[in-house]
Design brief:
Oligomer: single chain
Number of helices: 1
Largest sheet: none
Strand content: under 5%
Distance between the termini: 69 Å
Order of helices and strands: H
Structural class: mainly alpha
Radius of gyration: 23 Å
Length: 53
C-alpha cells in the first residue's frame, strides 16, 4: 500500500512540474503576444478601409 502512495505522489509531483514549466513558458510569451496585438491594432487603424467592404 505504501508503494502505491509513493507511486501516486511521484506521478503527481512530475505532473505538477510539467504544468509549472508550461505555465512559465506561457507567461514568458505573453509580452510578445501583447506587442504583436498592439502592432496589429495600430496597423489596422492607419490603413484605409478597403473598397470592397
Amino acid at each position: 500500500m505504501n508503494d502505491l502512495f509513493l507511486a501516486l505522489a511521484a506521478l503527481f509531483s512530475i505532473g505538477m512540474v510539467v504544468l509549472m514549466i508550461k505555465y512559465a513558458k506561457f507567461i514568458h510569451n505573453q509580452p510578445k503576444i501583447e506587442e504583436e496585438r498592439r502592432r496589429n491594432s495600430t496597423k489596422d487603424e492607419y490603413t484605409p478601409p478597403s473598397e470592397n467592404s
